[in-house]
Amino acid sequence: MSRKGLILVVSGFSGVGKGTIVRRLLEKYDNYALSVSVTTRAPREGERHGREYFFISEEQFTSMAEKGELIEYAGYVGHHYGTPRDYVTGHLDAGRDMILEIEIQGALKVKEQYPEAVLVFVVPPDAATLKARLLGRGTETPQVIEERMRRAVEESEGVERYDYLLVNDDLEACVEELHQIMLCEHRKTAVNQELINGIRTDLKRFVEGE
Ligand code: ADP
Ligand code: 5GP
Is there an atom of ligand 2 within 6 Å of 41 CB? Predict the structure, then answer.
């Protein structure tokens, strides 16, 4: 297995279950860590600074972006969101897989800088299920739910830019599949060059020593 962690980007329509999947993955396996983004939007009820997001001002955001402290950043419905660099690289170096729950513009920027990053797009079994989940969560007004459903139509255009499609039907099966995807990604030759070099050296020494 590659010793360095990999970035796992999880995107998908609002209400599809990204947060639920990620929480379950973190509960079940201890080799994952979740990146906490900075945002200029106001906290929603129940959200805590440093847990869901670091809630910062536009000025602080601009300063972080200018100093290169964000791996990526993007605008989304009038606000800015970004991924702090230090936290992510620290965990990757420690061998943990870093989960980034971000939208498509950010996902593509991450892939430019980290070609080995794994981009996963989560979809519902069908549109009616998506709407039912948004309604069931009960955090948005009917009008906002309509907006989010319309936005899902737009977002569906970008799905082919991702490496994997994950259908969130049965939650446990979905979480397990995601974990299996990451296990396979760690087996790729491209992320195991050190191991390959070690095997080559070992073989050479062994043959020469015979
Ligand atoms: P997102 O983070 O993508 O906006 P959430 O994780 O908040 O979505 O999930 C939206 C709603 O759907 C929540 O009420 C959650 O409990 C529910 N949900 C998530 N996954 C499933 C699933 N596999 N089956 C049934 N309900 C689900
Ligand atoms: P929300 O305001 O509903 O929490 O998030 C709005 C959108 O911003 C979601 O699609 C979420 O995935 C995305 N997002 C959250 N953090 C980041 C980030 O750091 N970078 C980018 N590019 N998108 C983010």
Answer: yes
Alpha carbon of residue 180 to chain centroid = 15
Q: Which amino acid is at 182?
A: M
Q: What is the residue with the minimal CA distance to atom 23 of ligand 1?
A: 171
Predicted confidence (pLDDT) per residue in 29-61, tens digit: 999 999 999 999 999 888 999 999 999 999 999
Whole-angstrom distance, CA of residue 131 vs CA of residue 124? 10
pTM above 0.85, yes or no: yes
Ligand 2 atom, smallest distance to 77 CA: 6
Burial letters for 92-106: b for 16+ Cβ neighbours within 10 Å, e otherwise?
Answer: beeebbbbbbbbbeb
Q: Which residues pair with 22 in a beta bridge?
A: none
DSSP bridge pairs for 120 = 10, 164
d(CA 36, CA 83): 7
Phi, psi dihedrals of residue 137, rounded to the nearest 5° = -65, -30
